[in-house]
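Final report, Chapter 2: Outcomes

The project's central promise was a pipeline that accepts a single protein chain and returns its three-dimensional structure in a standardized token representation, suitable for archiving and comparison. That pipeline is now operational. To close this chapter, we reproduce one record exactly as it appears in the project archive, with the input sequence first and the structure output second.
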Amino acid sequence: MYNNEEVVITKLQRIALKASKDKTCKFSSLFHLMDNELLLECFTQLKGKAASGVDNITKEKYASNLNANIDNLVERLHKMAYKPQPVLRVYIPKAGSNKQRPLGIPTLEDKLVQSGLVKILQAIYEQDFMDDSYGFRPNRGCHDALRALSQTVENQSIHYIVEADIKGFFDNVDQKQLIDFIKHRIADKRILRYIQRFLKAGIQEDGKYKASESGVPQGGSISPLFANIYLHYTLDLWFEKRIKLNCQGYARLIRYADDYVVCFENAADAKDFKMVMESRLNEFNLEVAPEKTKQLEFGPFAQSKAKARGERAQTFNFLGFTHYCSRSRDGKRFRMKRKTISKRFTAKLSEYKAWLKANRTLTTAQILKTTAAKLREHFVYYGVTDNTRSINSFAFRVMELLFKWLNRRGKRGCYTWEKFNKLLTLLPLPTPSIRVNLLW
């Protein structure tokens, strides 16, 4: 007897198999998959304490009458009576800057419907997406993209890098062109109608409604998939089918969502790509952020060439790390190494300091427990090959801040490092260590 999850997976596997075998197939019958089984599966995967949207419905409240609510939702969906509500716009701090990042919070039912659509569409598009697209895809992540970059730069004849970042990508996606791209694979009119409804649902901010004529709202589970579909056609396919074929040497594009780097063997290829890339993106209402987009000399000879000019070899940033030219320990082999971006490092410390200030009334044990969790999270992401110095430094700075704030609890100066170290033997903090090998 299959449980709900097994039934859902089996149905989606059939779709995926068909999409894989026939790359030109347009799927005209998909919406029947938006049933109780799929939406119940989506509900179980929702975070229990996720923020609620404009209707203030939480997962706990929805679960109090779950089966009836899902039945009603499915009925409205298939009658085409379901209308997505505006996303609630909030702002969160942007790491490494004083800017804030806009985030859209959908209602709970919108989250369910989006998750269902994502599961169906993902079964198809995962057969189409390029191997070097790593963002927001199953069983792929930032470390996979970083590993691919390391292997490429160190094992191929790479001498130039084009670092690129698309300016305000999610706000500037052309909705009409996105729908046109989706129609290459999706012919189910109900699926297309609901995609359009989500794109047009609008935004509610400070109690005011704003229509969404362009872009996709950040925060919904379907937006990252839309982003990958849009960039699959505007960038990835174009690079594979046009750019690489015209390159005189090796070339590889590695992308995580709207953040990507391109590795080149020849300077002329890098220069030509940077120039035509900007024109290509402009055709689809996109443009690169000038301050984050550059062509640079990088690779085994970059240091010696820069030194001959009286300069230092250039570096580039990708996925939270600054990448720089170096050598192996014995000095015989070129190595591309990485460290935490300075702005990210400072921003993370500032966030921790702000948390300490806001939670100074917690018990010492509670503060130590949360600090340990924050350090573990930091080490899990930034604890990668060659970044030992940065994570050690981060751990030390966190300890300094923690000691400072605990010292303020009593008479100033009465709390010593000796007492602090004794506390850490009772409530130890995680030790910084390399968790991820990026060389294989």
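Archive annotation: The chain is about 50% helix and 15% strand.
This record, like all others produced under the grant, will remain available to the consortium after the project formally closes.
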